[in-house]
Amino acid sequence: MARTLGDDSSAWCWGNLHQIYFSHRLSSEEPWRAMKAGPDPVSGSPTTLNMAMHMGPGPGRNKSGEIPCRVYHGPAFRLIVDLADPEHVHFVIAGGNGGAAGSQFATNQYAKWLAGDYLTISYNRDELDIHSTWKMEP
């Protein structure tokens, strides 16, 4: 641990070792750079609700700049449906909803996903009408 995180044991935190990093195999080239997100500390393990599978050389064995326990698998999509309030659904996607290279939406949900936050979709007609516009064309 000390070789990776230093002698100060207060820095020996799970998130300092376990980090997630999203990238595309072509992320060193434009326009694929927009697909990168992280590295950022994450919680979770293979046996927790917020599951996170990690691999890597481990503390003390990693090279300089290498994530000791890189998280490579976790919840790609989170969805909460409260049956007492079915008109509001909460969800988040791990990266974003734009899978095209160079898309402004490639990582637009990453910060919310990382924080454990969600977006809400309303199926309530009155709420939908407030934000909708009807355009009729011949």
Write the layout of secondary structure elements.
Elements: H1 2-5, H2 14-17, E1 18-22, E2 37-41, E3 53-55, E4 69-73, E5 77-81, E6 88-93, H3 110-115, E7 119-122, H4 125-130
Parallel strand pairs: 1-4
Antiparallel strand pairs: 1-2, 3-4, 5-6, 6-7
Helix content: 10-25%
How many H/I helical runs?
A: 4
Main sheet overview: 4 strands, mixed
Predict the CATH topology: Glutamine Phosphoribosylpyrophosphate, subunit 1, domain 1
Q: What is the class in the CATH system?
A: Alpha Beta
Beta-strand percentage range: 15-25%
List the strand order in the largest sheet. Answer: 2-1-4-3
Instruction: Specify the overall morphology.
Output: elongated
Residue runs with pLDDT of under 50 for 5 or more positions: none
Count the beta strands.
7
Mean pLDDT, to the nearest integer, reads: 89
State the CATH superfamily name. Answer: Aminohydrolase, N-terminal nucleophile (Ntn) domain
Q: Please trace the helix and strand order, writing H or E for each element.
A: HHEEEEEEHEH
- The gyration radius over C-alpha positions equals 20 Å
Please give the oligomerization state of what you see: single chain
Task: Label the structural class.
Answer: alpha+beta
Domain module tally: 1
